[in-house]
């Protein structure tokens, strides 16, 4: 299969395409110039637009749950999108290396095999997200909400999960070597292996508050 070439877009163009109704943005690469989406003059308008697409009043307009914004196989490394609310985002095999997604609401996003190495997801909301095979090595996941998320075969090596909420999430075969803040993360109904359970409990002073589902 031939490798599809990435289409370079600048930030202004990306915003214009999104506000113009385009949702298929696969195989793009953000230009090396300005990557600060949350600092863009039309950011508030974009946020309002995305919120409207969660439950469109126009029946002819597909909701994000039916037709998500798709940036799969793109390179959005270094993107700054603080507080972005873009639920159901599809970013399969997408690079978000060192992106700043602080406080982002990416509920039910599909980030299968995405590369979020070194990304900042402090306080982000990823309820029900798919992070299967994702790379999160060195990422900052402080206070992030990962309830019901799927982390199977993900790499969290060296990530900071202080205060992160993994209730009902699945961490089967997830790499946890050198993860920081495990003792301060919340695990309730979290699906783990026996080895992972013992690792987490060995680092936690609040073991009595954790509940696991062993697989």
Tell me which oligomeric state these chains represent: single chain
Give the beta-strand count: 4
Low-pLDDT windows of residues: none
For the largest beta-sheet, the strand count, sense and barrel status come to: 2 strands, parallel
Helix content: 10-25%
Tell me the structural class: little secondary structure
Instruction: Round the mean pLDDT to the nearest integer and report it.
Output: 93
Task: List the helices and strands in order.
Answer: EHEHEHE
* Radius of gyration, CA atoms, in whole angstroms: 18 Å
Shape: globular
Cα end-to-end separation = 36 Å
Largest beta sheet: what is the strand line-up? 1-2
Protein architecture, described:
With 215 residues, the chain is mostly loops. It contains three helices and four strands, in the order E-H-E-H-E-H-E. 13% of the residues lie in helices and 7% in strands. The protein has a two-stranded parallel ribbon. A two-stranded parallel sheet has the order 3-4. Helix 1 links the parallel strand 1 (7-9) and strand 2 (28-30). The longest helix is centred in the first third of the chain and has 10 residues, at 43-52.
């Amino acid at each position: 299969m031939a490798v599809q070439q990435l289409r370079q877009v600048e930030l202004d163009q990306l915003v214009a395409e999104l506000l113009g109704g385009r949702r298929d943005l696969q195989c793009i690469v953000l230009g090396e110039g300005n990557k600060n989406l949350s600092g863009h003059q039309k950011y508030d308008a974009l946020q309002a637009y995305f919120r409207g697409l969660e439950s469109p009043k126009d029946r002819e307009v597909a909701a994000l749950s039916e037709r998500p914004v798709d940036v799969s196989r793109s390179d959005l490394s270094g993107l700054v999108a603080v507080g972005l609310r873009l639920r159901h985002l599809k970013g399969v095999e997408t690079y978000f290396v060192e992106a700043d997604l602080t406080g982002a609401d990416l509920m039910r996003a599909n980030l299968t095999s995405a590369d979020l190495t070194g990304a900042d997801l402090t306080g982000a909301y990823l309820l029900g997200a798919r992070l299967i095979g994702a790379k999160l090595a060195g990422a900052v996941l402080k206070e992030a909400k990962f309830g019901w998320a799927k982390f199977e075969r993900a790499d969290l090596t060296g990530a900071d999960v202080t205060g992160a909420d993994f209730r009902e999430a699945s961490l089967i075969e997830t790499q946890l070597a050198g993860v920081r803040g495990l003792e301060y993360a919340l695990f309730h109904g979290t699906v783990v292996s026996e080895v992972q359970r013992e690792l987490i409990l060995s680092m936690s002073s609040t073991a009595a508050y954790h509940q696991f589902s062993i697989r």
